[in-house]
Amino acid sequence: MRSIAPSHGLFLQPKMAHVACLVYLTPRCTPRSKMQCTCLSVCSLNRTIHPNPSIRNYRNYRNYRNYRNLGAISWTSLAQMARFCTVATPFSTSSSVPLTFRCPSALVVAEVTSDVPQRSEEWFALRKDKLTTSTFSTALGFWKGNRRAELWHEKVFATDIESIGVAARSAMNWGVVNEAVAIEQYKNITGRDVGSLGFVVHFDVQLGWLGASPDGVLGSVPGGGILEVKCPYNKGKPERALPWSAVPFYYMPQVQGQMEIMDRDWVDLYCWTPNGSSLFRIARQRSYWKLMHGILQEFWWDCVVPAREAVQNGRPEDAQAYEPAGRHPQTGAVVAASMKLAADAKLICRDIGGHLEFYR
After folding, report:
1. CA neighbor of 85 nearest in space, from 65, 103, 62
2. Residues ≥6 apart with Cβ < 8 Å to 100
3. CA-CA distance, 351 to 72, in Å (whole number)?
4. Neighbours of 25 (CB within 10 A)
5. Pairing of the two strands 225-230 and 266-273
6. Secondary structure of residue 211 in the 3-state scheme
7. Which of 16-25, 135-144, 154-163, 341-350 has the lowest mean pLDDT?
8. 171: helix, coil or strand?
9. Cα gap 328→139, rounded to integer Å
């Protein structure tokens, strides 16, 4: 079995695995070419994708800015790209072997069994080289204190799993333990099937430094959505928590980021507690993404990436020069926009003590 070292600069280590792949081909790509594609994005639950530093490509951090002059890929072009999903596929090929692609009009998302569970050490390792949606509010400067600098330090010097505090780990464990129960409750209330994907990289290769771990995938595109589940820890007293009556504004960067990364138009944000639940529908807002994208890009490319390069070159003391400020000049504008989006979120239903009420 040979590995792939295609000319677009990604190095795949193939193995028999349950995988979920999203492949986007521009019209310049053909299955029999040497995969010299202008756009290729792959999401694999079980296969690691490594940038090949010897080849210039969009995913190579050092060359990213050199390619920005090539022009953006239009939404129309993206809509015309072939998409497919495979499950439990033995992937063995090389640049000289013809590939066969199934090209349905809509993306098929299959429920798969992953050997890289969310919040496992491998999952944390995959996230380390991406700016993920769960950290967007921190990267944007939403929180007081040193949270933004701490996130920068995690991305430059350490793995996520090493830097999680006791309180945060307890809250995370509460969510992990109850997430499956919450998803089942969501399915019972809505009658929807919920698919799963362990980790998703932005469909646009120019934004391949962005990633998300959705709690669930709802339907296929176009028209499909995303499920995001929250199990509030309630300051260490989760047994007393009540479901939200309104969406906390600080979740807006996460859910809007998920829609941008997965190219979907709505999120069901489901709040589960032992005492009831509430469900909100949040629509995609492209102007909001434009507002926060510039801040995220500065955080990653002007702060994280050059600091990493300094560390890799044996000059960790130089990395400190790239530490970001606690807030960005545009943080206030994003917070204000987040509050408006949260206020506009539609409450679908609320369950208190077993009494379920739907709202128009």
Report:
1. 103
2. 31
3. 45
4. 21
5. parallel
6. strand
7. 16-25
8. helix
9. 9
- Structure token digits, residue 281: 């529908």
The token pair at 180 is 């499956």
The token pair at 101 is: 């692609």
pLDDT at 28: 36
Task: Detail the DSSP E strand segments found in 14-146.
Answer: 16-17, 49-51, 89-90, 131-132
DSSP codes of every residue in 104-147: -SSB-------SS-TTSHHHHHHHHTSEEGGGHHHHTT-SSTTH
Beta bridge mates, 277: 272, 351
Any idea what DSSP says for residue 324? P
pTM higher than 0.85, yes or no? no
Tokens of 12: 């795949």
DSSP-derived secondary structure for 49-64: EEE-TTS--TT-GGGT
How, if at all, do strands 210-212 and 16-17 pair? Answer: unpaired
Comparing CA positions, the residue from 182, 341, 339, 155 lying closest to residue 275 is: 182
Is the separation of the CB atoms in 350 and 278 below 8 Å?
Answer: yes
Distance CA 116, CA 126 (A): 10
pLDDT single digits (tens) 308-327: 999 999 999 999 999 999 99
Contact assessment for residue 27 and residue 103, using Cβ atoms and an 8 Å cutoff: no
With a CB cutoff of 8 Å and minimum separation 6, the contacts of 300 are 131, 139, 209
Neighbours of 96 (CB within 10 A): 8
User: Is residue 93 pLDDT above 60, yes or no?
Assistant: no
Pick 250 or 62 by higher pLDDT.
250
